[in-house]
Design goal:
There is one protein chain. It contains 17 helices and 21 strands. By secondary structure, it is α+β, with helices and mostly antiparallel strands. The strands form 5 sheets. Strands 4-7-3-2-1-16 form a 6-stranded mixed beta sheet. A hairpin with a 4-residue loop joins strand 9 (177-184) and strand 10 (189-197). Helix 11 (440-465) crosses helix 15, helix 15 (522-535) packs antiparallel against helix 16 (552-561) and helix 15 crosses helix 17. The longest helix is centred in the last third of the chain and has 26 residues, at 440-465.
């Protein structure tokens, strides 16, 4: 028996139900809801400036009109679900009706649709029939041969709210998606947005690169956004246990040759839809929070709550194969710096642990990544391990601690062997690695020392540059040519002589913030700002919020109530000097 992976998505039986005659709808009367797509729509609110409440509201939905992978709607095919022309027409009418109800009021700025065509009398025509749609929204167009034509790049189309968005020429897009540059009317911000439909892969590295390249490319915009169907796992950063499924589809196109045909699932579940953004010139890529928007008539209140999306368990999913699918750890996209800065590997971040393993095993290809399953359980995977390393771990896998996997190459990717472990069991994995590779502990110490020294250099510079005093020593000149071990010893000796020095303050902050030492770290920015103001001469003032502040208590109160925004970071201001010292150069 196949159970429902998500309350808004169909089971195999519901999706495959066909009409008895060509003129009759294949959609069962509610309940359950009519099947609309193999994806749920997602809704995100993108912040347009740090410290402010201005948001860009984006709805993204893979609408399954141009899908040739699983047979839902491919012309002339009766794939695993099957759909004839009458059924497709009926489904499109339901989708357009439900979408129009969500767009009433014009609160949404951008509607990003994937797997949609420009077919005559197709889904787009159905969508634009509704008053709530055509009065507020227009398809993105560009000039072709002297005439305006709707932009469809990689079967991705953008509808924009012409009352809140002013598109800029030239509009366009390249594979794998549609791009719009525009002015956000209420804030005046210049924004670029990519509506993406990326290729399927169990290894997110290539798709991550597409997202990061778009978000960090130097163009004259203040905000960059990527939304859509990323076709690899996109999981919430938080660790709450919740059903994160956003799509169900035939597993025919997945690599499952190693699974006997009788044990293969006809329908798999995925968490592959999401949104990412970067603001101003920081080049820091962030993952946006999303909600599952309801565009079926199963539910009328607009969104699914945490209760509706409770974790899937043995009790709620009767099929054993489905339960394995839900619990399977999958490599997740790690665009947000949280994944590189959070100390998930004991006291080490993923990047620090990765550096230690690479140095120890003399293999720069080894990657440490986050895994997530469909209940948002977090794990850690050691990827691109050699056959020898995998063999050693397997030989010591007496408690079934690890999940081993092999991902075959797709396109230009290289094959990847990996070992995955739940976050709760990471310490046990680490102990095993120390047994197999005793030198790992010493290598970790070296990596942590270097990371702390790198952070110390940036923080010390920020503390010095942000202090307005006539005489300022520069301790960094003393340790500039020293080895890491010698520099550490010199710092600690200096602190012993003068425990309240700038060196002491920087060394302490470096330990706390070494994994996230950049100008995007508001806690660090504020701490340095307060210290600089306190250490400056008595005529020093602060101009946060455009108001002159002369007392530390006023500065501290202001920083409790607001973030240090881009507007505060004038090149000659204290905030600007501190941020410049902490800024991580774009690679």
């Amino acid at each position: 028996m196949m159970r429902r992976y998500h309350p808004a998505l169909p089971t195999i039986a519901e999706a495959a139900e066909k009409p008895e005659t060509s003129g009759e709808s294949f959609l069962p009367a509610p309940p359950p809801a009519p099947f609309l797509s193999d994806h749920v729509p997602i809704y995100s609110a993108i912040p347009l400036e740090a410290g402010k409440n201005d948001r860009l509201f984006v709805l993204s939905w893979n609408v399954l009109e141009a899908d040739f992978a699983n047979g839902f709607s491919a012309p002339g095919r009766q794939g695993v679900y099957g759909e004839n022309d009458a059924a497709k027409k009926d489904r499109h009418q339901h989708m357009a009706n439900r979408l129009s109800s969500v767009l009433i009021g014009g609160m949404t700025d951008i509607v990003a649709l994937q797997e949609i065509t420009l077919a005559k009398n197709g889904l787009l025509d159905e969508i634009m029939k509704y008053e709530s749609t055509h009065e507020n929204y227009k398809p993105l167009t560009t000039r072709v041969n002297g005439e305006q034509a709707i932009v469809n790049a990689g079967n991705c189309i953008i509808l924009y709210n012409h009352k809140t968005i002013i598109p800029l020429e030239p509009a366009g897009g390249t594979q794998p998606g549609c791009v719009i540059d525009f002015i956000h009317v209420s804030t005046g911000k210049k924004v670029k947005l990519l509506n993406a439909h990326l290729p399927y892969s169990e290894n997110p590295a290539a798709n991550e690169a597409v997202v990061k390249t778009f978000l960090t490319s130097k163009q004259k915009h203040e905000v960059a956004v990527v939304v859509g169907d990323f076709n690899c796992t996109v999981a919430p950063i938080h660790t709450d246990r919740i059903n994160i499924t956003t799509s169900v589809a035939s597993t025919d196109f997945r690599y499952e040759k190693h699974i006997p045909i009788k044990e293969r699932l006809p329908q798999g579940a995925y968490a592959i839809d999401g949104a990412f953004y970067s603001t101003s010139n920081s080049f820091i890529c962030r993952q946006a929070k999303i909600i599952h928007t309801v565009i079926t008539n199963m539910k009328e209140d607009g969104v699914y709550s945490d209760t509706d999306l409770a974790p899937l368990t043995q009790e709620t999913i009767a099929n054993e194969a489905q339960l394995r699918e839900i619990n399977q750890p999958r490599l997740a996209m790690m665009v947000d710096p949280h994944y590189q800065t959070a100390r998930l590997c004991g006291d080490m971040s993923l990047s620090e642990y990765e550096a230690a393993l690479q140095s120890l095993l003399n293999d720069e290809n080894i990657v440490v990544r986050i895994t997530k399953n469909l209940n948002n359980d977090t794990g850690i995977a050691l990827c691109y391990l050699s056959r020898d390393a995998i063999t050693k771990l397997k030989d010591n896998n007496d408690s079934n601690l690890l999940t081993f996997g092999f991902i075959p190459p797709m396109a230009s990717e290289q094959p990847m062997r990996y070992a995955a472990v739940s976050l709760a069991n990471f310490e046990a994995l680490h102990r095993r690695l120390l047994t197999l590779f005793p030198a790992l502990e010493e290598m970790q110490t070296k990596v942590l020392t270097k990371a702390r020294l790198d952070a110390f250099t940036k923080i010390y510079t920020a503390l010095r540059d942000g202090q307005t005093s006539l005489l300022k020593k520069n301790f960094l000149l003393t340790i500039g040519s020293m080895t890491d071990e010698a520099a550490t010893a010199s710092i600690e000796a200096n602190i012993h002589r003068n425990p309240n020095s700038r060196t002491a303050l920087a060394w302490k902050l470096a330990e706390t913030h070494r994994t996230h030492c950049n100008d995007d770290n508001q806690a660090l920015l504020k701490e340095i700002y307060k210290l600089c103001f306190e250490k400056s001469n008595f005529l020093s003032k602060s101009s946060l919020s455009g108001t002159s502040l002369w007392r530390s208590s006023k500065v501290n109160k202001t920083l409790e109530e607001k973030e240090i925004t881009d507007n505060d970071r004038d090149n000659h201001s204290r905030s600007g000097k501190i941020a410049a010292a902490l800024k991580t150069p774009k690679k």
